[in-house]
Amino acid sequence: MSKNEMTITKEDIIEWLKTTAVVLEKNAQYLTELDSPIGDADHGFNMNRGFKKIMSKLPQVEDNDIGTILKAVGMALITSVGGAGGPLYGTFYMDAGKAVAGKIKLSTNDLIALLNAGLKGVVRIGKTNLGDKTMVDAIHPAVEVIRKTLANNKDVIKALHCMTDAAYKGMKDTIPMLAKKGRASYLGERSIGHQDPGATSSYLILKTLLDTIESRHKSK
Amino acid sequence: MKKLINKPEYVVKEQLEGIALAYPDIVKVHFDPNFIYRADAPVKGKVAIVSGGGSGHEPMHGGFVGFGMLDAACPGEVFTSPTPDQMLEAAKIVNSGEGVLFIVKNYSGDVMNFDMAADMAREERIRVLNILIDDDVAVKDSLYTQGRRGVGTTVLAEKICGAAAEKGYDLKKLANLCRKININGRSMGMALTSCTTPVAGKPTFELGEDEMEIGIGIHGEPGRKRMKIKTANEITELLALSIIEDKSYKRTIREWDEGKQKWVDIELEDPTFKPGDKVLAFVNSMGGTPSIELPIIYRKLHEICEKRDLKIIRNLIGPYITSLEMQGCSITLLKMDDEMIELWDAPVKTAGLRCGM
Question: Does the A8-215 domain belong in CATH 1.25.40.10?
Answer without folding.
Answer: no
